[in-house]
């Protein structure tokens, strides 16, 4: 068990789908740099050789609350991601909702 990485999986009622939540810590890269790489889908297509297709198919920008000037929110993004996995695994086709938040006051991403 790794103390710097946590993954939760929860079944969605009455479906064969799951919700995932991930928390992790990296000590060899600044948090802001890691965040930018994860959010930049065009850059990911260039460096990740497993990506077959990666597109943001819908974007719903977050309207910032003026009382919360110490935070940034990406808004909701729906991504379509096709990944090529090595044998014996098959290609995977994902559609998922992505949202991130940066809280400068609490020093959290």
UniProtKB/TrEMBL annotation:
Ranges of residues in domain START: 1-109
Stored Pfam families: START
GO terms, molecular function: lipid binding
Cellular component GO terms held in the UniProt record: cytoplasm
SUPFAM superfamilies: Bet v1-like
Domain of life: Eukaryota
Coiled coil, from the record: none
PANTHER family, per database record: PHOSPHATIDYLCHOLINE TRANSFER PROTEIN, STAR-RELATED LIPID TRANSFER PROTEIN 7, MITOCHONDRIAL
Name by which UniProt lists this protein: START domain-containing protein
Organism this protein belongs to: Oppiella nova
């Amino acid at each position: 068990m790794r103390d710097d990485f946590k993954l939760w999986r929860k079944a969605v009622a009455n479906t064969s789908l799951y919700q995932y939540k991930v928390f992790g810590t990296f000590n060899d890269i600044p948090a802001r740099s890691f965040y930018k790489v994860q959010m930049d889908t065009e850059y990911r297509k260039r460096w990740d050789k497993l990506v077959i297709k990666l597109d943001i198919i819908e974007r719903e920008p977050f309207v910032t609350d003026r009382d919360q000037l110490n935070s940034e929110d990406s808004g909701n993004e729906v991504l379509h991601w096709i990944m090529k996995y090595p044998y014996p695994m098959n290609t995977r086709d994902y559609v998922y909702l992505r949202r991130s938040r940066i809280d400068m006051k609490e020093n959290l991403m």
